[in-house]
Automatic annotation (TrEMBL):
Belongs to the metallo-dependent hydrolases superfamily. Hydantoinase/dihydropyrimidinase family. Belongs to the metallo-dependent hydrolases superfamily. Allantoinase family. GO terms for cellular component: cytoplasm. The keyword Transmembrane does not apply. Homotetramer. It comes from Candidatus Sediminicultor quintus. This is allantoinase. One of its GO terms (biological process) is purine nucleobase catabolic process. SUPFAM superfamilies: Composite domain of metallo-dependent hydrolases, Metallo-dependent hydrolases.
Amino acid sequence: MLRIKNARIVEKDQLKTVNIYIERGKIKDILPAGEALLSVKKEIDAQRNVVFPGFIDPHVHFDDPGFTEREDFETGTKSAAAGGITTIIDMPCTSIPPITTASNYDYKLNIVKSKAYVDFAFWGGVTPEQVESGEYKKSLKELKDRGIVGVKFYTISGMELYPRMSVPYMDKVFRLMKELNLVCAIHAEDYYLVDYYSHLMQEMGREDPESWSLGRTYEAEPEAIWSVVGITEKVGNKLHIVHLSTKEGLNVIRWAKAQGLNVSTETCPQYLIFTTEDFKKLGSLLKIAPPLRKEEDREELWKGLKDGSIDFLSTDHAAGKYPEEKSSPDIWKNYAGIPGTQLAVPTMLHYGYHQGRLTLSEVQKLMSENTAKRYGLYPQKGAIQIGSDADFTIIDMDKEWTVEPSKLKSKGKYSPLAGKTLKGKIYMTILRGEIVYKDDEGVIGEKGFGELVKSKVE
């Protein structure tokens, strides 16, 4: 048995000092400080730092297999361990082949499982071709049997192997997914608006960062969210909007929730910290899709986290080859994406908790508990309670440090936070009772220790 002593855990916005007992990778007991179980073979001193249930990043692109010049499962999960993330959920679209069939799923799992430093789950996928042939009826059931947390759809896509889905096709798939009780996750930007205005900007000879924002026009996000909410209103499926970026998009989500629809959403740290003005200054470092928005959008997203209309946080971690894919003077030729998994937790503690926008309890829910519940991983993940996996992120809340991109474990050694001083640092990351990261030693877990986690949604 293992004991974590002097652990301060968050309970109803209060910090409570406890000793946590772990046996065979699970939480066996939680006792007040001073009370002890006998026969402990090993002990970890949390040194009165705050201990959270292991954080979850539910939206990453680790590119393995197929695009491993940008990222792979080893470097991606290493960056997660160093960032206090104990479980990641990998998207189906940025690997070759995409996870659209049981055989593709098995192929990917076989390649990545020996590389993982933290636990992982998978999103599944579906293509228009599968809808046309009817194959999706078989493939989605087989993917669910393998434990996917849901299925990802794009209303606009630049990926040849993972095209956008039209409204009629989404309606068909949503109906099957309602039967299967699976979450339908949407990258929501209206295809027709973005296609027209992006081409218009380029025809005008615009190569500046603002032209990317104007091309991926503001109205595209709420327009696309309305369209998929419209389907969900008819079908009654579970709907999730990824990387929400606009105030108007959030208002659509609020309307849908008020109607009693089963709709959730996430946003990312980049949309909470930076705006279009930062993009104009930093350029390609902040090129993402959807693009950054205005100050009023940034502020409204914080309000959404506080009032519960935004359900949780993700990173949309997508590392480009650096500097090659981030150095063109023409913004249209640069890769859209930034690595975010390693910096998400300290970023949210600094800008969220320390700047008074979020309580520790809200950070815990937004970065662990709510995600686990939505995707059928709770209470195995996302909880500090008896029987849960012994996953913990221990934080030195007051330690200040400066972001140095060269020290990121991701292959993408770049960040718009370069040179920023953050308050709150990962002291230790523990996965199923084993230390996988220590602040003074780095990543010390074993490659391949990370395990597949399956959604328990029936």
